[in-house]
């Protein structure tokens, strides 16, 4: 049987079962059911750029895409509820399943973006229990976000425990971030099989501990602490031999701790955050970026910090705002390599689009925001962000970024690194980006936005 049809049949059966559960619940007792949805078509035009970089000879690219979400929230009683959200995304006219050239019965691009069950006051404690596929967002999306700008977004197959007492909240999340299936070269165990499962070596699991206190350091303040462990172990053919030979588990352990503080002081909005990472970095695909054959025994030692200071003038016409923004993400230099240390900060499950420019040139590709977009050299971002509201329901934003790497290839100490990789002995300047966005809330059901971005590259 065709695999797409099998998957479609499975999803259809799941929706039928969900409907039956809802109907049985309705027949058994009065429940609160709310439906919602979203349709988000988007047009993107990109000129003078492709996956290899910038060039004025590159042809422009025009792309239409759409995200459709349909959700239902079921509140059975004061303590038990569920949420189910089906999402379909696609690029207009892409290949067989969206082309209008000929008819097709193979269209299948929908699945559950979220599907979870919640029990409030679990065991009569101030504890909420939530299990299933769900979005996980902490604070401003710096390390854990839903990546809402991207049509697909991000959700986690996870278990969440939330303990709340007055203005204090503590959260624990376990996420099975990646489970290798049984179809690839490293075949995972099939459900119900007694076969040994070597591909657990390829799995990625995440543990998140987060605590937050409101008004701890002043009115309207928010103080958060983080402890995150990601076991992103992998098997790399360059290290252990050609597939499907599995010799050993390759550790890529990321421990992240940090503190975030935001609030209002002397009429200014502020935010400061600092995160430190340690563990092991032993994936050759990471280390190949740095021109070193050493793949085992490298200690991870990295950090990042972010500062923000802003002011909104609500009593001035157009309600202008001005924000100064600086982010520093450490990178790896030749001294680190010779000392068997990996110093590139990984931004984990962040919503990068909120921080490093609307063109998403940095900290987006790769695994867990691992820094490949700057070849593990780190990133510094100084930004000025402004906004005005020229009329009711209209917002205009303008952001300007100056980007640098952390590692300076013009430093003579890094000459061996530049030579090994065939890079220029350039300074740290990457270029500047200008982002302009117009948002119009047309009515309660329709929001229209348009944006223009330009990157001034350093060549």
Written overview of the protein:
This protein has 459 residues and is mainly β. The chain contains six helices and 20 strands. It has two domains: 113 residues, no CATH class; 337 residues, Porin (Beta Barrel), CATH 2.40.160. The protein has an 18-stranded mixed beta sheet that branches. The N terminus is likely disordered.
Instruction: Please report the distance between the alpha carbons of the first and last residues.
Output: 53 Å
Helical content stands at: 10-25%
Fraction in beta strands: 35-45%
CATH architecture of the largest domain: Beta Barrel
- What summary fits the major beta sheet? 18 strands, mixed
DSSP helix count?
6
Give the gist of this structure.
The protein has helices at 3-28, 95-98, 237-240, 284-287, 334-338, 415-421; strands spanning 32-46, 49-50, 53-54, 61-75, 80-91, 110-119, 127-134, 156-165, 168-178, 204-214, 222-231, 253-265, 268-280, 299-312, 321-329, 341-342, 379-388, 394-404, 429-441, 447-457. With 459 residues, it is mainly beta.
Task: Throw out a few tags for this protein.
459 residues; mainly beta; Porin; 2 domains; 18-stranded mixed sheet; two-stranded antiparallel sheet; 20 strands; globular
């Amino acid at each position: 049987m065709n695999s797409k049809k099998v998957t479609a049949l499975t999803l259809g059966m799941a929706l039928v079962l969900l409907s039956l559960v809802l109907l049985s619940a309705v027949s058994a007792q009065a429940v609160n059911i709310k439906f919602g949805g979203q349709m988000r078509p988007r047009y993107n035009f990109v000129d003078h750029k492709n996956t290899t970089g910038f060039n004025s000879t590159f042809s422009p690219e025009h792309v239409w895409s759409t995200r459709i979400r349909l959700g239902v929230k079921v509140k059975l009683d004061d303590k038990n509820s569920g949420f189910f959200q089906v999402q379909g995304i696609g690029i207009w006219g892409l290949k067989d399943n969206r082309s209008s050239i000929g008819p097709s019965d193979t269209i299948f691009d929908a699945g559950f973006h979220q599907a979870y069950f919640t029990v409030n006051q679990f065991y009569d404690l101030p504890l909420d229990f939530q299990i299933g596929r769900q979005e996980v967002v902490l604070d401003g999306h710096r390390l854990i976000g839903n990546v809402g700008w991207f049509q697909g977004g991000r959700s986690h197959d996870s278990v969440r425990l939330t303990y709340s007492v007055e203005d204090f909240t503590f959260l624990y999340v376990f996420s099975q971030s990646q489970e290798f299936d049984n179809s690839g070269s490293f075949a995972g165990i099939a459900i119900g099989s007694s076969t040994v499962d070597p591909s657990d070596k390829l799995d990625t699991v995440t543990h998140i501990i987060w605590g937050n206190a409101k008004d701890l350091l002043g009115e309207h303040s928010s103080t958060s602490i983080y402890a995150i462990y990601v076991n992103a172990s992998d098997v790399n053919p360059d290290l252990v031999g050609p597939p499907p030979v599995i010799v050993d588990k390759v550790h890529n352990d990321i421990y992240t701790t940090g503190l975030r503080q935001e609030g209002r002081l002397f009429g200014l909005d502020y935010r400061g955050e600092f995160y430190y990472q340690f563990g092991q970095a032993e994936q050759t695909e990471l280390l190949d970026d740095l021109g070193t054959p050493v793949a085992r025994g490298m200690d991870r030692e990295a950090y990042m910090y972010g500062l923000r200071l802003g002011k909104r003038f609500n009593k001035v016409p157009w309600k202008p705002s001005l924000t100064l923004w600086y982010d520093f993400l450490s990178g790896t230099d030749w001294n680190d390599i010779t000392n068997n240390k990996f110093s590139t900060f990984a931004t984990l499950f962040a919503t990068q689009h909120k921080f490093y420019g609307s063109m998403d040139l940095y900290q987006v590709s790769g695994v867990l925001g691992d820094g490949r977009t700057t070849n593990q050299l780190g990133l510094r971002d100084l930004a000025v962000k402004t906004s005005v509201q020229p009329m009711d329901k209209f917002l205009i934003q303008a952001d300007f970024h100056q980007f640098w790497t952390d590692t300076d290839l013009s430093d003579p100490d890094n000459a061996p690194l530049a030579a090994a990789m065939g890079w220029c002995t350039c300074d740290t300047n990457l270029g500047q980006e200008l982002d302009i966005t117009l948002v119009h809330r047309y009515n309660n059901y329709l929001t229209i936005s348009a944006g223009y971005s330009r990157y001034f590259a350093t060549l």
